[in-house]
Amino acid sequence: MGIGHRTRGSDERPMGSAVITARAAATFEPVGRSVAAARAFVRDTLQGWGFPDIIDDAVVLTSELVTNAVVHAGTSADVLCVRTDEGVRIEVSDRYPERELPLQTPTRQFGGVDREGGRGLMLCTALAACWGVEYGATHKKVWFRLDLDDRPAGTRSAGPALPVEALPVADPRVRVAVVQIDGTGGISAWNDDAEHLFGYTADQVTGKPLADLAAWPHTPGTSTGIAEALRLSRWEGSYGIRGADGRVIPVYASHLRVRDNEGAPSTVCLLVRDEERAVLQSPPRSSGADASTDRGTAADPFEVFIGSPAPDDLDGLLQRTVERARDMLDGDAAYLLLATDDETELEVRASTGLPSARQRFARVPVEAGTGRYGSARLPSVHDDLNAVPGAVPLLTDTGLRSVVTVPLKVEGRLTGSLGVAAEAPHRYGNEEALRLQFAADRIALAVESARLGELERLRRGSLSFLVEASDLLAGTLDRDQTLALMAQMTVPTLATWCAVYTIADQSSEPELSYVLHEDEDLIDGLKALLAKVAPPDPVPTPGARIWTAPARAAHSEALRSSLRSVGLADVPESSPAPGVSLTTAAAVGGETVVLPLVARNRVIGMLTLGKPADDHFRQEIVELAEDLSRRAALALDNARLYSERTAISQSLQRSLLPPGLPDVPGVEVDVIYRAAGEGNEVGGDFYDIFPIRDGAYGFAIGDVCGTGPEAAAVTGLARHALRLLAREGFGGPAVLERLNAAILDEGARSRFLTLLYGELWPQQDGSALLKVVCAGHPLPLRLRPDGTVEPAADPQPLLGVMEDLELYEQPVTLDPGDVLLCVTDGVTERREGSRMLGDDGLADVLATCTGLNAGAVSARILRAVERFAAEPPSDDMAILAMRMPERPTE
Fold it and tell me: Which stretches are transmembrane (predicted)?
């Protein structure tokens, strides 16, 4: 079962004093599309009952009430249409009786039309003859009744019977002024009625421009004046004529443009007093049902479409409209354009019989001028476009000769234009224009409603898109990843292909940094094509601008490829296959727009979006791309700044680390260093091994209080001071005492420091002599070949706390096969909950390292630290392992 199910029937039971003659019912599921289905059901039902006059009101009220049921109440909706001898009653029921309706009381008024609550009931009050609400145990029902107008059967148009005193006052004889205007706008004929009405004789006005006498109403926002109206094939409306006594006489006029036997054009104007307009005014056209009854024929195809359920989507509605318009006037092509919000441009949205892919979303200005759509605001008939080149820019070079266009207006506002064209000239006249205008008036409201709905959905989607894009762009500070995200967010959502140009500084030229196409096979060809095109100028002006260079280059490449394929040009052996260039041209040959990437008042690049051959961008998509470009520009600039500062930071940090481990004769040395914090290469822990003099080497491993840049600053001070003092010949205690003084001299920036410093002398017998000072640092551990682990020094005071230190150095001998392990507290204080690795745990791990070389020892210690807890280490960590190789047995 679809959205709803329907039942129809007839019933003679009375409803009050009325007699029910027919009924139709349907149930609709609680989904958004049910509202459109309910509208179609009511329209079909009333059309079938022969009540076209009340269809629009019934559909509007049903739409609001069904929306309340399926969207706001969240239940299914039952719609019942009842026909009586007095009118039509429509009932909408939902299954949520507990939800109270916002009824109007003296202390509680309905909200405005922009509010959701109470809007449907406010419409009932305005449109329905009567309405009410009924509550039951399982449902709630809102009903309304629409009465039928009393019209004599078979009458096309009639006014009410009025008493004699209510009829308009006229002279004993109704006078119709006949004025003829020549091709220059001057008066060439003036009849007696014109002389009687306005007081001028024919001799007084002949040759004068009608504009000198006419008081023309200038409508704001339009450029149509009396000169333009006189050039139209037909015009009807009100204006004023200044009489001989200076008074302005309101008149109603009907203009018809003709030509004489010699082909000279002129305009015949019939004028009556405005209160006598009924003499000239064209009667309002009756509904399609009435017209078809009078003619004795079926309604034309477009009117059949208007009476049928319209497609739910805007594109489907517009396409159906142009097809019906073409069929109605037996044309060869038809098109429909929608106006922008400011009514200054028209955008092609649907066409038939035209290259729609080439024209879709193309734009033309509304105002008059070469290549402009000057006839958008009024009905217009062009007998032969060859006689007026460029009158309808959309049809240029299409072979179509005659065209009739009419405006789509809602409440006096231009919302679009509908046109039908034929290949033969002189196909259309005023009668076809009236028929097409009648059809346009019937469809204008539905088109505008669907357009607003589409615009609202697009805006909601745009907000979601921008929120997601902002989250993605904010989630990375990597420049290359930011460029990739910019392209991937636009392709294929906004464009077929994308290219990002970046500008390093004000003196640099734009550089092609990233290219993406929805077809991955075309990316290389697109990149090669853009490399041959000069980049767009880095203009800081906000907004998108058209860039034609890629399309021209693509067409040029395609032409050369085609010539080579037919042997009309030399083909180098290294040239790609002709199909590659042709495919690339088709992919790039459409509209291309460039959006500047401006951040912190500087152009840092350009975002280029493109469409395939002969395709155009919608204005809404361009506006969305502009919003995205502003966010992307800031994200790209943040990534650039982060990359620059990261490079500076890493360069400075690397200067704090030893350039490399020296080759110590007869000693295996290995170091593992891990700095805590993302992007940090140096923290509060440090190490160093360096030659002091011939045969003597210094080594150190230390831990500055804290982590990050502040600790790294003390790290640099300590490492460089150790090297300098040791090479000046100071012993271990003297070196550390002077380093302690230097740290205290830093004042508020000083931090306490634990340090293990030693001097190493390798011996000829494979052993090594060491002198070490352990200033508050975790004690070094010595591993014997038999697995015995023991501390190799005693603890002494740390540095950076007291001015007077009494330190001493302790001798240590490493025999062949011995290992000396030095670590920072990031190793021993590794925790998981209340457990800590500690000195004992480290000794247990080291005891398992017998027979391993220095690199394997440090790797096993690191692995044990990492596996001790599930979370990654949060402290700086340094591991220094020195091993004396065992002498080979003879």
Answer: none
Amino acid 712 reads: A
Q: Write out the DSSP string of 845-887.
A: HHHTTTT--HHHHHHHHHHHHHHT-SSPP-S-EEEEEEEPPPP
**Nearest-angstrom CA–CA distance, 730 and 735:** 6
8 A C-beta contact, residue 768 and residue 760: yes
DSSP 546: E
Q: What is the mean pLDDT of the chain?
A: 79
For residue 214, list its beta bridge partners. 241
For 476-564+580-647, which CATH class?
alpha beta
Q: Which fold has domain 20-97+119-147?
A: Heat Shock Protein 90 (3.30.565)
CB atoms within 10 A of CB 293: 15
Burial label for 458, CB within 10 Å (0-12, 13-18, 19+), is middle
CATH homologous superfamily of 657-884 equals PPM-type phosphatase domain (3.60.40.10)
Interatomic CA distance for residues 250 and 275, integer angstroms: 8
Above pLDDT 90, what percent of the chain?
20
CATH number of 307-455: 3.30.450.40
> Phi then psi for 116, rounded to 5 degrees?
-75, -45
Read off the pLDDT of each residue in 677-696 and give the average, rounded to a whole number: 78
Establish whether domains 177-279 and 307-455 are of one fold. yes
Residue 57 one-letter amino acid: D
**Helix or strand holding residue 466 (H, E):** helix 430-474
Residue in 132, 137, 154, 12 with CA at minimum distance from that of residue 61? 132
Evaluate whether 786 touches 737 at the Cβ level (below 8 Å).
no
Per-residue pLDDT of 296-308, as tens digits, reads 444 443 344 444 4
The upper half-sphere exposure of residue 272, i.e. CA atoms within 13 Å in the direction of its Cβ, equals: 17
CATH no., domain 177-279: 3.30.450.20
> For the chain, what are the domain ranges?
20-97+119-147, 177-279, 307-455, 476-564+580-647, 657-884
Q: Which residues pair with 323 in a beta bridge?
A: none
pLDDT band at 193 (very low <50, low <70, confident <90, very high): very high
What's the rounded Cα separation, in Å, for the pair 877 and 672?
8
Buried b (16+ CB within 10 A) or exposed e, 477-495: bebeebbebbbebbbeebb
Distance in angstroms (rounded) separating the CA atoms of residues 718 and 77: 81
Residue 835 CA to residue 827 CA, distance in Å, equals 13
Under DSSP, the state recorded for 779 is P
pLDDT per position as a tens digit, 17-74: 678 888 888 888 887 677 778 887 888 788 777 787 788 788 888 888 888 877 667 7
Given a contact cutoff of 8 angstroms between Cβ atoms, the answer to whether 334 and 421 are in contact is yes
Question: How is residue 186 annotated by DSSP?
Answer: B
Residue 173: Cβ within 10 Å count: 8
Q: Could you tell me the maximum CA-CA distance found in the chain, to the nearest angstrom? A: 148
User: Residues 6 or more apart from 726 whose CB is under 8 A from it?
Assistant: 690, 692, 698, 735, 759
CA-only gyration radius of the chain, Å: 45
